[in-house]
Amino acid sequence: MAMIFGASNILWMVFAVSQAFKVDIFPESRIIAQIGDSISLTCSTTACESPKFSWRTQMDSPLNAKVKSEGTTSTLTMHPVDLGNEHNYLCTVTCGSEKREKEFPVEIYSFPKDPEIRLSGPPEIGKPVTVTCLVPDVYPPERLEIKLLKGNTSLKKQEFLEPSEIKAKETKHLEVTLTPVDEDIGKALVCQATLQINAVDSESRVRETTEKLQVYISPKDTAVSVNPSTNLQEGDSVTMTCTSEGLPAPQISWSKKLDDGNLQLLSKNATLTLIAMRVEDSGIYVCEGVNPAGKDRKEVKLIVQEKMPTVEVYPAPKIAAQIGDSVVLTCGVTGCESPSFSWRTQLDSPLNGKVRSEGFNSTLTLNPVKFESEDSYVCTVICGHKKLEKGIQVELYSFPRDPEIEMSGLLVSGHPVTVSCQVPDVYPLDRLEIELLKGESILKKKIFSEDVSKKALETKSLEMTFIPTTEDTGKVLVCLAKLPIDEMEFEPKQRQSTQILDVNVAPRDTAILVSPSPVLEEGSSVNMICSSDGLPAPKILWRRQLSNGDLQTLSENTTLTLTSTKMEDSGIYICEGINQAGRSRKEVELIIQVAPKDVRLTAFPSESVKEGDKVIISCTCGNVPQTLIILKKKAKSGYIELKSTDGAYTIHRAQLEDAGVYECESKNEVGLQLRSLTLDVKGRESNKDYFSPELLVLYCASSLIIPAIGMIIYFARKANMKGSYSLV
User: Per the structure, how many domains does the chain have?
Assistant: First the structure.
């Protein structure tokens, strides 16, 4: 039993030792190292006082590394890492009779630099160019992928899947041929390289290079401008400017072609200026535009001649002179020490001017310019045995003043008016144009091209009739005269006058406001306010119409006030609105009322008449207008109103019952008055000589009835005898 217990203790101790002895490694995961880097593999133990370390590769290849063991730790250092270090490294640790191993997988890659973008030549518009995307020193190359992009567009993608026969770093590339266009200018070329460095975990490294696509245009359309000319004289200066199109902008250089054909560089500026030239400066000058895409050249030939005397005329070989002005013609010579001057006309007509010569200049003054001055003048210069001539052509015109605008009358809205645009003292007439504008609208245009132009100053005009409106107020009336003689240089070639339209409106809508009323009581006050529309604002004039028809001026104020009115103030009052365009009037009748007075009631011929007489009862009321007169007769039941005409009641044959009291009631809005009278009707006295008209009529009628009855009986009997009797 004791032996069993001892044996079990030994086994337990061995088990415990075996469980305590442990090997640790760092790093614990797969090691991925780039060629040229430095890496260290560390192997350490626990629960072992004196471990023994050894290192080897799985294939027993050379370690290509340094081992350093100390205590319980051993380190394997690879510096620098190269392709020979791509192995599985084994760390073996012996502790007594125990032995442990740990494996370090080391994977090597090479991806040291960004890709390179190379072009087969300068990229030119329309010309193919090969773009190469180069990735140097790659390992392993079969895990490489290259992509080439232009902007956001992929041009090409390539993978190198086939493994190499030898284990070595390689340089891989991708090529694309493209033809640049204008839209490619400024776009980016991107070369992107991706290396999958861990086949197990698909871990990748990405490098890319971006280059702006510099598109070139080879120099072309090279041109040269020469000022003043390619034909020069000794002492002259010349400026030559060269331009050339291309991208980038070509570098300009100037050279002179030598006799042997070589070029002598003169300048690297676009402009070449040569001063004080000599005859030997004649030759061919070459302008060349150069950029990385190519070159283009342009040649110009300069000829420098021996200097000769030159004659110049001022202000120009052809001038325009206004009639009446003063013109000075100048002739100057250079390159002659003692010149002799003379002037003449082309047709040898009189000069009509004064000549003055001094030094190297001679002048001919025409003052004033007349129609006879229109000629070609020749300046002759004698210099030694040389004779030089220059001519000046003098052409005449007359356009001295701005046009004149005239109106046939005042501008009144709705009334036709004639506008005249007059241009004075014009020559030549056949070139004259006149336009009449209102604002920006052309009202009328006239060209005098058909008029025969004679040598005389004439005044021409354009007329037009139009009807102005109030909308025209403030608009500008423009009279524009043109003398467009293109071959003659003078100013101005057009003149204009303007006039702002001020359209008047005749007074209208004249109105009168009477306060408190046009009908008043005597002694009241009244305000009469007059208004009238027009442009300009009408002036107000108050007048009163007299009995004889004349008008009495009362006031020039808008308001006419009458205080303490009397009956004499009644009448027609007239308000007139007056401006320069016309007048408008409005009338109002003012009635001043008073209470009836001076009422008279009369009987004509008398208040006492006989029966059968004609009687007129009349009621009148002073000078009070608008008075109501009522005639009444007193009866037992009251007063009976009589039908009267203009206050008069006529009794054609008075009867006894017509007698009685008659009353006149005169009233208006102010008051009333009553008047009465008593009419007495007397009966007629008996008279033997008196013969009543009624009795006379009865007597005459009876004398006619008896013969009539007899005739009726006679005709009735006669009809009965014939058998035609009838009641009828």
Answer: 8
